User: What shape does this take?
Amino acid sequence: MKQIILVLVLLWAMPSFADYQEGLDAFERGDSLTALKEFRALAESNDAMGQYGMGVLHDVGEGVAQSSEEAAKWYRLAAEQGHADAQNNLGVMYEEGEGVTRNHEEAMRWYRKAAELGNKDAPNNIGVMYMTGVGVRRDFVKAYMWFSIAGKSDPSAASNKKFLKTRMTPEEITQAESLAVEWLNIRGRDKTGKS
Assistant: This one.
């Protein structure tokens, strides 16, 4: 019975993904009108991927007039549905004060949500806030932890981590690495449902 329900859910979601892919393909080839048409149809039916697509179009001004306010509106709608990339982008908008009133606490809140869902940019963004003391108390251990979570595949995080390593004691580095491993283990358990 569970397999039948899963198949029905997947069949229901596939047209949405196909339309999003059509919009993404159009965006990547520079066909902003088709991208807008596909994303708008999805967004208006409360689809988080379509809302995220509309946010990107407004953010960069492709197929529509550039509007940080509209981008933030669409990112928020997608972010509230758990879209990790929209959560990260909304965090950036709060951190920079683009389309919304600058609010570092809100930026951190959205970055954390995005990181928990696996967004690849959010851990570095959180680390930078801790490293610079913007919106939070400056904390190199927490910054190093988040740069470690970002991993070697994020060149900015790797560079930031290298910068901090020369300013921290071996004990602080060990503590930060331990915190990163603990966070990743907890996140892994949350994803699998195992404890």
Remarks:
- Residues 121-195 form one domain.
- The chain is about 75% helix and 0% strand.
- The CA atoms of residues 55 and 73 lie 7 Å apart.
